[in-house]
Amino acid sequence: MTSQAAPYAARRAREAALEANHPGSPRIVPLLFFTVLVVAIFFAMIYLRIAMDRSAFELDSVNDQIVLEQSRTLDLRLELAQLQDPQRIAAQAAQIGLVYPEEQIILVVTGDRAGVDYTEDAVPVNALDDIAP
Amino acid sequence: MRRHRSTRPGRQPSGERTRIWKRGDGRLFIIGLAFVIAWSGMGFRLFNLQGAQAVELATRGFNQRIREAEIPAPRGTIYDRDGVELALTVDGWDVVVDPQLLDDPSAAALVLAPFSGRDVSTLTDELIDAQSIGSRYEQIAVRVRNDRKATIEEAVDAADLSGVFYQRVPLRIYPAGSVAAQVIGLTRYDDGAGIEGLEKTFNSELVGDPGRLIVERDPYGRVIPQGETLVDPATPGSDIITTIDREIQFAAEQALEDAVERTNALGGSVVVMDPESGEILAMANWPAIDLNDRSTYDAEAMRNRAATDIFEPGSTLKTVTISAALEEGVVTPDTPIDTPKKVTIGEFDYTDHGYNPPWMPVKDVVKKSSNVGTIEIERRLGRTLHYQYLTEFGLGTTASLDVAGERYGPLLPTSEWNNTTGSSIGIGYAIGTTAIQMAAVYSTIANDGVWTEPFLVKEIRPATGELIETHPRTRTVLSPETAQSMRWMLGRVVEDNGTGRRAYMDAYTSGGKTGTTNKFDTELGRYVEATNASFIGMAPLDDPKVVVVVVLDSPHGVGSDGVELNLGGASAAPVFREVAQAALHQLGVPPDRN
Question: Whose C-alpha in A7, B57, B87, B537 is 20 to 30 A from the C-alpha of B578?
């Protein structure tokens, strides 16, 4: 053992003895970690709460939008039905001078003329034979 | 190893006891005590609030925040057979103000008056009065549509008015206005309950079940996010799919309106029925009414005459008498029947209109609508069989499955018949019928002898659950041969010099019967000059797709061709032609007349 090693050995022995006398003394790193974790959880909870509140507002807004769109859909259905109203159509037709023909001509499209060459016989004879010139 | 010893105050390492209290420890004690008392107080309070009174306080707080509201169930829609809306509920708005929140009532009145139907000074006075008596509710406009509400909102925002609120209310709209008005019916304004027509008959199906909404709100009424929310959703009312064809309905209404104008009638009704299925394709009534304009509401115009008005069917009922006689083999179309100018039974003389030969075959009795000939056939048939067929044809009871307010006319049992009752009923007197009943009678002949219950609603579509389809009752009254034979004879009525020649259609074969009866004045207790003129027919004749009943109330005057308009053949038959033709076109039935 050298003369320099002696104080070192003595210090190690004191430290070992001190450590042996305080076996449960806390270490700083785990404590720090725990503290940071608690703080992080605390802020995370606050953040989550805010996020959930924000989502709730957004959900509320989306629900309002759904109600609004449903209302618009009903309005559009109503408008469509009103546009199809035969009374309205008849009135509009009368306004632009459309009238029912005095004589009604009925065209019967039989659909049984497969194979007929319509380039030469462009108009089905059954249908238009009776139409007065 | 030596154990480390504690160096707590008051204890020496040697274990000898020393003084515990030192100078200044008294203050520490007091502070400590104060803390203990404070914490104990807080603990007690905490226990009191969170323990002893916890439930009561939580309930009180919850009740202050909680708002419970009923979620109204959307009323079901009424559709025509093609899925076009006949009655629809949309969002409407009541516009109200809280007068206490108005800074300047006159400025508010200036903005709101154009929407309130009141002039500015009147509204100003009303708002000032309301403000002075502490009222918090003043109605500005009721039941406005979304577009109107948007206009009001715009004006209110532009004027920066406070205290204006919009309350959502359901608004029942009838897109086709007056088309099928009496069939569809009406709902009440305040609670939306059906009070007329289909709206009334199917009210319980249409209303649905209201839901419940419980939410936590802040003092300003805003929903608290993450608060308690309980939603018991409303179940929408069922949709009703009717058998009505809006195009045919419109054509029937147009033809009826024209006829009423042309014949100076007081009113009338037209029924178009699919004889095979029993579906009522159209049921038109005059006078008409616009369901969207309550200011013109008239109970008389709202009446579904086709279902409620009882009339003596006259000659149109001869079809029943003669069909029964054919079915029972009492006569054939060619059996000769004596047709003297007059038949006297009891106190009554029965005659024919115009000249008829002394005898004619049954087919001509139908064509010429001979009263005396039909009476002779009825006598051969006998009252028991006659009555049996009348009931089997659906007379003496309601005919339809679901037409609101349907009535039926009297049909006396044979035990109460006197010596003229059978003869009178045979030619359509002494019995009451409605247009629907007569539609069912003629549909029996059109449908090869099978009577089918007329109906208006073919499907009920619940929001949840299974579709409900209508299955009408049916019964066989005549053989197909008899029905066919009867149709052939009815076809002769509309041709050549038959009484119903004005019902003749160029494109389709048709058949039918005219009817003209003098109206019975219950106050006078006798028949009067005014008539009920009718025509009931079917087309195409071989396989009828429609049966059309036309009844005009008191037509009168003389037509352009000099014919008396009080007769069914003159006034009602042309309506049949128009309506039947439109209906057959709409149904895509190909013409069968070359």
Answer: B87
